[in-house]
Amino acid sequence: MAFFLETLLGGLMSGMLYSLVALGFVLIFKASGVFNFAQGAMVLFAALAMARFSEWIPGWLGIESLFVANVLAFSVAVVIMFIVAWLIERLALRHLVNQEGATLLMATLGIAYVLDGIGQTIFGSDIYKIDVGMPKEPVMMLESVFEGGILINKEDFIAALIAALLVISLSIFFQKTATGRALRAVADDHQAAQSIGIPLGRIWVIVWCVAGITALVAGIIWGSKLGAQFSLQTVALRALPVVILGGLTSVPGAIIGGLIIGVGEKLSEVYLGPFVGGGIEIWFAYMLALVFLLFRPQGLFGEKIIDRV
Amino acid sequence: MKLRKIAVTVSLAAIGLSAALTAPATFAAEEQFFPVLSFRTGAYAPNGTPWANGYVDYFKLTNARGGVNGVKMIWEECETAYATDRGVECYERLKGKHGGATVVQPLSTGITFALTEKAPVDKIPLITAGYGRSESQDGSVFAWNFPLIGTYWMAADVLVQHIAKKEGGFDKLKGKKITLVYHDSPYGKEPIALLQERAKMHGYELSLLPVAHPGVEQKATWLQIRQNKPDYVFLWGWGVMNSTSIKEAQATGYPREKMYGVWWSGAEPDVKDVGDGAKGYNALAMQHGAEQGSKVVKEILEKVHAKGQGTGPKEEVGQVLYMRGLISAMLAVEGVRSAQARYGKGKRITGEQMRWGLENINLDQKTLDGMGFGGVMRPVQTSCLDHMGSAWARLHTWDGKKWNFSSDWYQGDEKVLRPLVISTAGRYSEEKKIVRRTAEDCKK
Predict the structure, then answer these.
(1) What's the domain range around B217?
(2) Which of A196, A258, B58, B341 is most buried by a 10 A CB count?
(3) Do B196 and B156 contact (CB within 8 A), yes or no?
(4) Which of B211, B250, B273 sits opposite A227 (nearest CB)?
């Protein structure tokens, strides 16, 4: 029982981190109707910026405090992500207003390749450390209830809390602020939103900036766990089944979807894996998402599309 | 008349000029071409880049030393991103360039599997130093594969020998639990046959936990390890999978002292961002470790890097994977030297001649010392039947800042390895209808 609980908790915490990346997809889709394939590349770019500036800044400014170096590196990384957002709007999206969804998707694929290449050219392709003081050693809980207790990974726990906080803040931003409402209006219909005076360009810059910040937070958390390196990009692929399952337009869907995928893949690897040779957690997440698609094509919380004939 | 004179003068001048231009070509150095299949981008770049830098730097050093009897080394890199399809594409693109490839080193077991059937057709030897197919040590079947100075079966054998020594003998392994955490690819699966063979002999319990590419998600794997509580964990990872394994071991409280990596899981990129968390983690050293103090490294710094011709950063020179690339290139260069001794000093050799050269490498300690490899590696002697040439390895341990050697030398046990090599190679020869080479064939 203790082992089952450990696996379950591990899955929930991983799921929360998937939600964080999935949120980047949902934000941009909600606001612009674009399925942003570059979200993984943005996570990698942001993590590399954070890792390298936290390494470079102490040398440039003679700072010894890790905290100050991290704060400065975070600030620089935020500015960089804003610049990236502005450039994406200027160079790509502005020219694609009212285009088909597939065209926009292809544009984001291109953006992903550009960010990948530029990121590694500027910051390097090694594994870089992000040290934000996350605890690495595990803690044991409920030792009086279960023999040997239940192991909790403190780093994962804190990361899940940060992710949860960010998700809640973004939900409030979307539902309760004027900008959030404008974002939703743009998502519904570009032309209609423009006709009532919503500045499309500015809204897109804002949403890509928010997605950039989400990518930066995800990059810092995942980078602290795995090191800032190319494979972070593949983390975005873990978020794809999450958005399929949760629905592309729903923030709560991203959260619930993340948790289901996180728990599903860990339990499947531990309990089904030994019967099929192991190493199944990656494709199991997609299998799970496909099964959901069969019954609810719009995902758990996605908006049902009804076309008038 | 005047016109005729001008025409004759111009013709004579043209003949003179053309003679002057072509004359140096007669004396120009011969060139030996090496395709370099490398990966400097993608998920495995942190590990592939230092290997490629060491590999190319050794060719530069060889040229700085005057080439091999005057023959200069030339090379061209092709990015494989550690993907088999791209590796094969690189091989096809480069194999015919500059008069033909001398030898190919794919730096991927997957690519090696794909090229094993192409090499005999193209007559280009494959050096797979420390990777590739373990049974290709048998040169009578795998005439074109050279897993020089190490195979995965040999590596696994040395690891079992080491823990047996720690436990107080092979008989003490009975009932022990060993878990293999491996990259779910041909590379990661290679040691399984040997570990199962040894498990039958000594009675330890072997459990297998595959990790999917690229290896960043291992939570479930390490939760299973926490549940099973193995006595030892063997790690057969590559790239980011290695550091992730060590971090997950730390996160689940598994002692790093009980973890043993293969030589592709024991370099600086695998541990440096884990730092103190990797303290006590052990890995095989494929003879060499980090060798910043060696003579050959000093010579590279002096003759290549000091002249601004270094391929990568200066600080990387002498690190573990840099040395692996350097030694791989050295073995290729010595193959050329050995072939030249038979087919003509100072001449460019063909792939077929290179095979003979690689089958007749004889690097004794004196030669190695003279080349600056003293203390770095042990003698290597290949033959037509033994394409590995040396079966020695030792272990090194990460102290939080650097790798330190932590064991004596071990030799792969021929009594265990040989029957496995012969039987597996035999199955391959039957399947592919390959006639084993005889002693007579070897003389050709």
Answers:
(1) 153-289+396-412
(2) A258
(3) no
(4) B273
